[in-house]
Design a protein that fits this description.
Length: about 900
């Protein structure tokens, strides 16, 4: 082997990686550090719900507790005797506990979880234990202790918490290799769930956040790994051009929320004029919109593009037996409740022992004094003699005692003062013994019925501390916001038809429409190729572009009409189709796939319009019919890959538009899903009606306002909405309302006069209120009167609205119902009435399947034609039957 090869081998050996096994300190240090972080810093214990720093803070506060406030700096310094870390981490942990408003009674500026403002320095704020903490967290008699880190003091291993504290407060932390995120839950609901568990019933607990908001817990997964909670801000319309945010998602604050809104505005996702933050004790963020911007779409856009909606991924990880344990919140509650039962049992057993000791000594004391045994020791000269003399004197009287008399008992008897003996009252002594016996019996009863005692304990906690702790977060199922439908069209789309480019940077070419940077664009070319591509600065889709538009996914309403030539010399075909889903940047051939195919005619119709075109053939040979009309309404709507119906085998000269068409689609059915408070076309919820382009929805609110709206899927509805139905303009609305100024009930009937404006149909006095409202043609109501003192109750009055009052203007006061005091008004079944029927539209139903062939059946119906000649098939020169 040459010297050069030897050098090469040596160089390769030197470059190879070597694995060196570590030993000594390096072998164990990382594991020790990881164990320390997991067990002693980041993850709470399942027994009491505290991390070590939190437990030491609570223990220090109990050490210092005298009922008065202590400076937080003083508490932090005292905690450092138990916690081997700096004061900053202790102060931060204490502020977090105080902000949860459960264990610590705070005084001073402790920060604001709504605005994100931090607390004042620890030397300026004060704290003391809350009554709840003193009630459920401490009991030294049943606490296990261990030496502090320096061995000078004792600290609790776990505090005897008799409440699911971890679930009430929540907790999160990041350790080495794992993390935990336990969401806070409602105080009252946790107690009720604990009671159900003790009763052997099933229970469910859901998160409840201190920042309120709206939560969708569909995928909560019991707080286990892989779950997800979606939380939204509560947004409503303040006025025509203003939105107000009154509650925010957990984990955000008003500052971060406003920043996210401003960033979305800067990126063009939403369009706002300005933001006002009026947050103090409650959240109030006013979002001012420019004129012409839809408030409903802006609300959805805020959810889609800002922190007004966030996703939280819970992860239930706790420490049990010095090991991390991944567990769901239901199991945490069961463990906490069972632990509470055991703590209550230990507490009762200690109480029983104390009461029995007190009874034992009280009985000995009575025997000792009542039988004057103290006189037996007068002649004794030694301590042993005194003990024996008392023991001998007690023996005849101690048969009823529950345990033997010990020397310690006799020593205690010798410590009784002469003054106490001289004032000894036998009756009072017996009363004390009887009271102790009652207490012993009560404790034994509780031990014998431990579950009932635990239930009563939880019920007492709910009664004593549940006030003001009602649920804050509204639980609701969300409907996903389609970002493409609510995004602001912040850029312009251009096309170079000849060269085949589309994009936002082609400003010298033809303008197509406004679009957003998250839109998809659909394009059709002269050779029958279709492509959908993401909006970009410049994208090649194919030369000779004949149509470009923003693509809407699952759009069944847009129908494309197409006539194409199959190959260079083949026949021509006509087809109608929709495009509901595609693969982005993939070419789709809409012809039969023959080389040389080209499009004769193309149109895109957003409401399924079917136009009439004129076919002109070339003068070749002896063709008799060179011109005829083709009505697209006669063509069934099929999948985009269908071949289509043959128009003619002869060469077409040109195709001209003769007559614009009307929609051939059925009226759109719209449903209202009460769960998510949204309209939809997916048959979820209750059917509102069938809507054509000009139809509107009637909305009536409990506040006495009425309006009509276009049935848009993005519409948001007020919480006090009481009527929602398809609006029939000539149908009157009947109402009974209480006029606050005149203090009388009035009846009125009216029709909506201004369809684009929300109006109030009751008086504007603050005490005015809507009693009943009906949209029936001939409604009736039953009026029940209040019985007045000294008078007989007036019989109920039946009101026929049609006879009681004529239809008047919406601003009319109406007719007074009665002067008597009304107790209740109820709607009755309406009188029979045949409403005028709406004229049915001539329709063709859309076939949703993408890949139907020409022979596939369809439920579509052809429009009836008066001209039977258009239905008959024409014969071409060779006698073949074609469509035309």
């Amino acid at each position: 082997m040459s010297e050069e090869n030897n050098d090469l081998l040596n160089e390769q050996e030197n470059n190879q990686e070597t694995i060196t096994k570590v030993s000594g300190m390096f072998k164990d240090w990382f594991l020790d550090y990881a164990s320390y972080v997991i067990l002693e810093r980041a993850v709470p214990a399942i027994e009491d719900g505290f991390k070590p720093v939190q437990r030491r803070i609570m223990h220090s506060m109990k050490d210092l507790d005298d009922g008065r406030y202590n400076k937080v700096a003083n508490i932090v310094g005292h905690t450092m005797q138990y916690h081997p870390h700096g004061d900053a981490s202790i102060a931060d942990a204490m502020v977090q506990i105080g902000q949860k408003d459960l264990l610590i009674d705070t005084q001073g500026n402790w920060g604001n979880i709504l605005t994100g403002d931090s607390a004042a320095a620890s030397r300026y704020i004060e704290a003391r234990l809350s009554k709840f903490a003193l009630d459920v967290v401490y009991n030294p008699k049943i606490t296990e202790w261990q030496a502090s880190y320096d061995g000078r003091r004792k600290e609790p291993i776990n505090l005897p918490v008799m409440f699911p504290l971890l679930l009430a407060q929540g907790g999160e932390g990041i350790a080495v290799g794992l993390s935990t995120k336990i969401l806070p839950h409602n105080f009252i609901e946790l107690i009720e769930a604990s009671v159900k568990h003790l009763q052997g019933k099933r229970f469910t607990i859901l998160p409840d956040f201190p920042t309120a908001g709206i939560a969708d817990i569909t995928n909560y997964n019991d707080g286990l790994r892989g779950g997800k909670v979606r939380v939204r801000a509560k947004i409503s319309q303040y006025d025509k051009n203003t939105l107000v945010i009154t509650e925010i998602p957990y984990g955000t604050n008003t500052s971060s929320l406003i920043d996210s809104i401003l960033k979305a505005n800067d990126k063009g996702k939403i369009k706002i004029k300005k933001i006002e933050d009026n947050t103090a004790a409650k959240v109030e963020i006013l979002v001012h919109l420019p004129g012409g911007i839809s408030p409903d779409k802006t609300i959805d856009a805020l959810y889609a593009f800002t922190n007004c909606e966030i996703s939280i991924s819970p992860l239930g990880c706790v420490i049990e037996d010095n090991k991390p344990l991944f567990v769901g919140v239901s199991e945490m509650l069961r463990h906490s409740t069972d632990n509470t039962v055991q703590l209550l049992k230990s507490e009762l057993e200690i109480q029983l022992g104390e009461f029995e000791e007190q009874w034992h000594f009280a009985s000995l004391e009575r025997i000792f004094i009542e039988n004057r045994i103290y006189r037996d020791i007068e002649e004794e000269e030694t301590w042993e003699g005194v003990i024996k003399a008392i023991d001998k004197g007690l023996k005849p009287h101690t048969k009823h005692l529950k345990r033997a008399v010990l020397e310690e008992d006799i020593v205690r008897l010798t410590e009784i003062r002469i003054k106490r003996i001289s004032k000894f009252d036998i009756d009072k002594a017996q009363q004390k013994i009887d009271a102790l016996e009652d207490q012993i019996a009560e404790v034994k009863h509780h031990l014998a019925n431990l579950i009932d005692y635990a239930i009563a304990f939880f019920e007492r906690l709910k009664k004593d501390y549940g006030e003001g702790k009602e649920r804050q977060t509204e639980i609701r199922v969300f409907e996903d916001v389609d970002a493409t439908k609510v995004v602001i069209r912040n850029t312009k789309l251009y096309v170079n038809r000849a060269e085949g480019f589309i994009g936002t940077s082609l400003k010298k070419d033809e303008y197509v429409c406004d679009c957003s940077d998250i839109d998809d664009i659909i394009a059709f070319t002269k050779d029958g190729i279709m492509m959908v591509s993401k909006v970009d600065t410049k994208t090649f889709v194919g030369k000779d572009i004949i149509h470009v538009a923003v693509f809407k996914k699952k759009d069944k309403r847009t129908i494309y009409n197409l006539i194409y030539k199959d190959g260079a010399k083949g026949p021509s075909y006509v087809k109608r189709f929709s495009v509901t889903s595609v693969t982005r940047d993939r070419e789709y051939d809409l012809t039969n796939g023959t080389k040389g195919s080209k499009v004769w005619y193309f149109s895109a119709n957003p409401n399924g319009e079917a136009e009439v075109v004129t076919i002109n053939l070339r003068q070749v040979g002896s063709i008799k019919k060179l011109k005829w009309d083709l009505d697209f309404a006669d063509i069934l709507i099929k999948g985009r890959s269908s071949k289509g119906n043959r128009v003619t085998k002869h060469a077409i000269k040109k195709i001209e538009l003769k007559e614009k068409g009307v929609s051939t689609l059925k009226p759109r059915k719209i449903w209202f899903d009460d769960t998510v408070q949204r309209l939809n076309v997916d048959e979820r919820g209750d059917l509102v009606g069938e809507f054509r382009g000009e139809d509107r929805i009637l909305i009536i609110n409990q506040s006495g306002t009425i309006k009509t709206i276009v049935p848009e899927i993005t519409t948001h509805f007020d919480s006090d909405m009481i009527v929602m139905e398809k609006w029939i303009p000539k149908k009157p609305i009947s109402a009974v309302y209480f006029d606050g100024e005149k203090e009388r009930y009035y009846v009125k009937r009216f029709v909506v006069e201004n369809e684009s404006k929300e109006e109030s149909f009751i008086s504007d006095h603050p005490n005015s209120q809507l009693e009943i409202v009906s949209t029936d043609w001939r409604p009736r109501a039953d009026v029940e009167f209040t019985k007045e003192r000294g008078k007989d109750r007036r019989e109920n009055l039946e009101v026929n609205f049609e006879e009681f009052i004529a239809v008047k203007g919406i601003t009319a006061l109406g007719n007074q119902l009665t002067k008597d005091k009304v107790k209740q008004i109820n709607l009755l079944d309406p009188l029979p009435y045949e409403a005028p029927e709406e004229l049915p539209a001539e329709t063709i139903e859309v076939v949703d399947e993408e890949n139907l062939s020409d022979s596939d059946s369809s439920t579509s119906k052809k429009k009836e034609k008066n001209d039977q000649k258009k239905k008959s098939n024409d014969l071409d020169e060779e006698g073949q039957t074609t469509l035309f």
